[in-house]
Sequence to fold (540 residues):
Amino acid sequence: MSKLIYLDNAATTAVSKEVVDAMLPYFTEYYGNPSAIYSFANESGKAVASARETLAGIIGAKPEEIYFTGGGSESDNWAIKATAEAYASKGKHIITTKIEHHAVLHTCEYLEKKGYEVTYLDVDENGLINPNELEKAIREDTILISIMAANNEIGTIEPIEEIGKIAKSHGVLFHTDAVQAFGHIKIDVDKMNIDMLSASGHKINGPKGIGLMYIRKGVKIRSFIHGGAQERQRRAGTHNVPGIVGFGVAAKLALENMEARIKYETELRDYLIKRVMEEIPYTRLNGDKEKRLPNNANFCFRFIEGESLLILLDQNGICGSSGSACTSGSLDPSHVLLAIGLPHEIAHGSLRLTLSDQIKKEDIDFTVDRLKEIIERLRSMSPLYEDFIKKQK
Amino acid sequence: MYSEKVIDHFSNPRNVGEIENPSGVGTVGNAKCGDIMRMYLDIDDNGIIQEAKFKTFGCGAAVATSSMATELVKGKTVEEALKVTNKAVMEALDGLPPVKVHCSLLAEEAIHAALWDYAEKHDLKIEGLQKPVNDISEHEEDIAEEY
Fold:
């Protein structure tokens, strides 16, 4: 096997060297607990404050509105469960969508068991919600709208600003899972009327195990992790100082390079999509063509199954992911692909390739060339393809 | 997650293809669940399986179990082939992850479906063979109309 072509950056990213370099001293040199009194711990405290400031700046928030968590899933759980609890006297109705990450969906399902009502909005064939349907779904007892900024599988970017406007005009809190969008596209919590936002370090070349939640000042929310007085008594636990430092530096780099990166990745993505769609027959592009994350491409190849495809790509050094049942660990293919209206048998043949700024055009060419061979090979052994060809004749 | 044998049978599947005018052919599974296996058998006048071929839509384990199943039935009598269980297929592959055990069941069913077709065509009764239930014909329509 030659070189590794990593096209699964929506799953996680490589930590950049600057980030690691910035983190290292906080393991061995400045290891003090930022909550301590002695001056030795000052350096850790300062580092946490500085990272908080950087991270707040990325989304136009104030530093005191940023709360560090263990990652995106914790932030999603916190936002939804704690809001539900804090606003239970006002109502028990939550609105979300059918294409959320499981960190949101399974949390909502959990709340349903606890007596809450959840509306799961449909999306169109490109994965976009309809703002009119959102507005119609709002009731007297609606306490929270949770809609992702961008979808992790098909890359569709939701109309967050419009959603925020609707939420605000009805006096309903708006949480957005921005794990895939944060640092990748522009987000402004004031302009978009976002009350709570989840983000994660490892999707932007930062470390794993660190995330944040933005909570607008004035939002009533319960603690989720009880214990010490960290994070304004809202999230207990000793600060993950190296993780926070790394997250801050990763965010700073993401912001500095955002424009160039968007341009670079969008061009590369469109080149990938163009080649695949033109050169591989019976292929569908999933997700919106325009309103799409710069690094995301997602296809369905008819007559083949995703896991087989992933193994053969892996044998060529290419890392991708799929929404087939076999890769999801259940009998059903991805809930996102089903929600955009794909039949099961088509959804099983999905492939997600997510780029980074380290990927070159020649990597894409190599990938598409291998992809063509692999798909041809899998189709040649597919009974579905055999039947299809016989019917064509 | 897969044994070396599974990866080998997936990467270099044995007996992929079709048999023209097979003695028996059977298709099991359904596209909705993501696995379809079609097995072709060529059986001589003495009831010995001379050739077995397959086509499979499915994951790595589905392809590997199909490949192994064809290997295991080749050269066997119809009665012996009937005794090739999913367990035998799994053992021959040095095991499967628990979530993939259904693939081996599908392989066993594919053998049975092909034998059933053979028995029907030749007006035979094979002791212990039951009509396979897991057939894709009912799903063919919704696959064809897409796109």
About this structure: The CA atoms of residues 86 and 108 of chain B lie 5 Å apart.
